[in-house]
Request: fold
Amino acid sequence: MINGNTGLIAHIGYPTHAFKSPMIYNPYFEHAGVNAVVVPMGCKPEHYPAFLQSIFTLDNIRGALVTMPHKVTTVGLLDDATPTVKIAGSCNAVRRTEDGRLLGDMFDGEGFVRGVRRKGCTLEGARALVVGCGGVGSAIAASLAAAGVAWLGLFDARDESAQGLKARLTTHYPTLEVTTGSNDPAGYDLVVNATPMGMNDGDPLPVDVTRIAPETFVGEVVMKTEMTAFLKAVQARGCRFQVGSDMLFEQIPAYLEFFGFPTTTPEVLRSVAKLSY
Reply:
């Protein structure tokens, strides 16, 4: 029940028809007895800078979830940003600090990392390959660096994207070994598909699956279908893996903590979510 004490989380993007967060957060808030609500807000790019500033003049705003096409623009509108935001070059969560400053974070990578750790993948000292160095891939790479991996291989069809990400990573993590230019998965403990490959039938696989060892852990970001062709191929090789939707459900507890709400588990979120596809 919305009342005068309800905390507001703005879910800002454009268009809004594909938004799934309200169908996860709001059932959870009702289930947990949290007096808050996530409201989708369709804002076109030309209005976004002014809108973000104005919405944080509300006293009952608890934060903002930011999605496409505003994640990159948001970085330039913040007063403070985490290293993950600076490395990824994008931001998907904003809150107002006690002194009125806007602080931004990026939780795509945090969700990925929480998920693989809960599935038993050890990241400290590991060798990880991230294929795809756009927004999601950059966020995952940043979170893997923060988690203590020793070696990161980066590959993107646009080599300048991989090179730029390498430069940002080494600025914040100077002892991290970072290589670019190869998507050969041999010798890695963790392989991540952070490309859109798998969204459509017939897409090529992001790496040569025959080069992935059975003991390698594999992560996927594509959510259109749970078992993409890539995951089916690595499953046949005996690899442990994480599906794309796990990244979404694993990052929501991190958002809740960031906004100052009681945290929960992905299992609880999945049990109460009212998603439609």
Remarks:
- The chain has a mean pLDDT of 94.
